[in-house]
Amino acid sequence: MVVGHEPGGDGRVSEASAVDGLDPVASALVTEYLYDQGWSDGLPLVPATEESVKTFLAHTDRDPDEIVARLPQLGRTATVRDVATHAVMAGCRPEYLPLVLTAWDALSAEPSVLGGGWQSTSGPAPLVIVNGPIRSGLGINSRGGVLGPGFRPNATVPRALGLTVRNSFGIVPHKLEQATQGIPGRWTICIGEDEENSPWEPLSVDGGLRPGADAVSAMLVRTCEFVDNRHFADPIEVLRDFADTIQRAGPWIFRHSSVAIVLNPEHAQLFADAGLDKQDVREWIATHAGKTEAELAAVGKGLSHLAEGPFEPDHFHPVLADASPASLPIVVAGSRNAAMSMVVRIFSTWSGRSFPLR
Amino acid sequence: MSSPVTSELEPATAGHVSEYLFERGWSDGLPLVPATEESVQAFLVHTSRDEDEIVARLPQLDREATVRDLAVHAVMAGCRPEYFPVVLAAWDALSAERSALGGGWQSTSGPAPFVIVNGPIRAELGINSTGGVLGPGFRPNATIPRAIGLTVRNSFRVIPHALEQATQGLPGRWTMLIGEDEEHSPWEPLSVDGGLPAGADSVTATLVRTCEFVDNRHFSDPEEVLRDFADTLSRSGSWIFRHSSAAIVLNPDHARVFAEAGMDKQDVREWIVGHASKTEAELAAVGKGLSGQLPDGPFAPDHVHPVFADARPANLPIIVAGSRNAAMSMVVRIFSTWSGRSFPIR
Amino acid sequence: MSGGIIDPTKSRSTVTAAGTDASRPEQLRDLRVGLLENGKRNAAQVLDAVGHVLAERHGTGPLVPLIKKQFAMPLPDDLVDELLAGCDVVVIGVGDCGSCSASAVADGIRLEQAGLPAAVICTDAFETTSQAMAELKGDQAYPFILTEHPIANLTGEQIAQRAGGLAERVAERLLVGRPASEAA
C-alpha cells in the first residue's frame, strides 16, 4: 500500500515504505469532506468520531456534559465533549485535552471574551500561557521560536479553541465574526513560560497559584510588536525602548490600555542583575509609558472629552491604568540567542487569574 | 475534488494517516494531507512548467526544490490543485528577495513570507481580501503560505531549534497571504507598483516581522491619520540599522479618506517618509544612537534620522485590504527590504 | 453515512426559538419612546435626535433614555423589566461594531417576544453580522434598520441630518411591523 511521498531529500521525491493500515487516498477524501462541511479554519482537519473523542475524554475526570464555554448573547454553549471533538479535529494528541479544557476555564473568566471579543472588529486572538511541569510532559515550546510554528501542542491547542468558536458558537468570518483585518496567527498563540531561564517566579504565581503548579493563563490580544534591543549598555535603555513602543499612538482607543510583554530571558536577566524584579519593571514602565494631551490630539485622539477633561496640552496620560500584573503581565520566553522581546497588545484587560490544570 | 459519496469515508484511516505524517516529522505542528503520486499529478496539471525545474533554492545549505517538490508540499498543506500556480509564483517572488536567499529562513528574527495577490484570480480561487484578511478562515489564504513553510521545513530542512534559529518567532509565520481589495481601493494595485500591467494576475512577496495595528476611527482630518502612522513607524523597538522598510495594509476607509483629500499612494508615502523619524538623542536614550555606527557620524543630539531611506514603493509598499467596518490599518515591518517587483502567475 | 464523523456544529445545548413581532400600535401619539443606547460613540446622540424628530412629527410622549452598559451582552433582566414598565415602544442602537450590532438585533428580537415593539438601528457595514444573528435566533426575516457607516465621527449637525431620515424608518417599523422595508 502506498503511503505517500517523502517530501524532503535532495529536492527529489522518493516513495516512503508501505505501512499497513494507511490509505492516503481514503484519508484525503475525508479531509476534503471536512472542508466541504464548512468546519475548517482553512487548514486540514482530523475527523472526530465517537471513538477518537472517547480516547480524548479518558484524559479528564470531568463530566462530558459539563458546560465549559458559553456565549450568552448567542445562546451557545460548548460541553467537555464538544471541546474534545474540536481538540481531535485540531490535531491535538489525546493527552492535550486537559490543557484545552483549562484554557477554556481561563477564557471563560475573561470579561473581554464574554463581552463580544470573538465577534469584534479587532479580531483578537487568545494568548494561552502554560506554566509548570506539564510543559515538558507535553513538549510545549517555551524557547526558540516560541510564538512561531513547528510544535504540535503550541499549534493545536489554540486551534482547538478557534474551532470551538467557529463550530460550537457558530462565529464564522464575514458573518458573526466581524474582524476588520484580523491578526496573523489568530488561533496559534500558545506558549510555555521558560521558567528554567527566568530569574523570577512564573506568571501563574502572579495569577494567584503556588509556584510549580501546572497552570494556564489566557487573555485576548491584538498584535505582537517586537522590541529588538541587543546592544544595550544599561537596563534603563531597554526599559525606555519598551516604553517607546508601548506608548505608540496607533493602539490608543480608550484612556488606558493593557499590554503583555513576552520577555526574552536575556532581557529578564539584565533586569534581574540590576536588582529589578518583575514588579519593579512594571512600575518603571507604568510610570514612563505615556503621551501628552497634545501628542494624542495631533493624531485625533485627544482625551479632553473625558469627564476629567479638558486637559492642558502638556498633561501626561500614562498608557497603563496601574502597575498590576493584570494591566502588564510579563512572561519570560524565547531563545537567548538574540535580545528581542515582544510587546503584546491586550484586548481590553487580563482578569489577572491563572487556572490550575484539570 | 467533489464531495465523495459519504459511505466511502474512512475516518479511522484518516486519523491514522494524520498521525503517521506527524510522526515522520514533516509537519509544522498541524495536520497534513498525505501526498501521493496521484494527488501530486493532479496539482502538476495546473502548470505548464517542467516538474523538474528548480524554483526555490538555498545555496548556503546546498538545498533546492523543484516544481514537483512544491506540488508535494502544496498537497500536504491542504491546498486545492488550482492554487498551485499561486504557490509557484510566490516562490518566484521569494527567490527574487535578497532577504530570503540571505538567511532569512534561519534568522533569529523568524520572519514570515508575506504574500499579496492581485488580479481576477482572487475571485476565482476565493482569496479573502476584505474582513479578517490577515486572520484565519479562508482556505487559499491559509494553505498557500503554509505550503511555503513546509517547503522550507522539508526541502530546505530548516527546522526550529536546529537550523531555524528564531528567538521568539512570529504568530502566524506561515499564514500571511492576502488579496488586495482592488474593488475598494481608490488607487492602482500593488502589482502596478511592482512593474506589471493593471489587472494582471500576480504575486508579490517579501519577508516581514511583526504587524502593528493603527486603530484610528475618530479622525476629523487625514493628516491626523498620517501622523498616527508616522508615530508607529518611528517607534524605536524595531530600530536596528540606519533605515528600515515597512508595508502598510491600509484599510479601505483610510484609503478613501486620503484619496478624497486628493492624495495618491505616492503622496501618502512621501508624507510618511518626510515625517517618520527619531532624533539622535531619542535613539541614544534607548541605546540605539547612530553616532558610533555610521561613517557620517557623530550626530548632534537634535539630528533627525528618518526611518525610511526613500519614498519608493520598495521601501513602503501600500496594499488596500480589510473590511471598511472600522478604520483600522496595519503597519507591517519588512525584514530587510522588498525587491520592488511583482511576479505574474503563469 | 459519513463513517461516523461527528458534526461539531451540533451542540446538544443549542436553543433557538421562532420569532414573532409584538402587536403594533395604531399611532405613536403620546406613546413613551424608550431610547436604548449601547454606549458607543454618538449612539446616544443619534437616538436622542431620532427621538426628537419622532416627537416633532408624530407627537410622541416622553423620551425615556436608557443605557445598555455591556453592549455585546444580552439585555439584563432588570433592564428588560424597566423597558417593559416604562416604555410603549423602543428604539435600539446604534450597532456599529462586530458584537454590538449582532447584539442589538438579539435585543430587538427579545423585546418583540416580550411584547414591546422595537426598532433596531445598525450601520450598514454590519449588515451581514446583524442578519447572521437574526438567523441564529431563528428569525431570519427580522427587520432591522441600516444607516450608513460610520457614525462615530459625525458632527452634531450631521447627526441631526441623519436623524431626519432615520426617524421615518423607525416610525414605519414601530407602526407597521412586518413586512417593513429593509432599507439599504
UniProtKB/TrEMBL annotation, chain B:
Q: What is this protein called?
A: Uncharacterized protein
This chain's source organism reads: Phytoactinopolyspora halotolerans
Name the lineage: Bacteria, Bacillati, Actinomycetota, Actinomycetes, Jiangellales
UniProtKB/TrEMBL annotation, chain C:
Q: Which residues form the UGSC-like domain?
A: 5-174
Q: Which residues form the signal peptide?
A: none
Q: Which InterPro entries does this one have?
A: UGSC-like_dom, UGSC_seleno
Q: Where is this region: Disordered?
A: 1-23
Q: Which top-rank group of organisms is this from?
A: Bacteria
Species of origin reads Phytoactinopolyspora halotolerans
A Pfam family hit: UGSC
Annotated protein name in UniProt: UGSC-like domain-containing protein
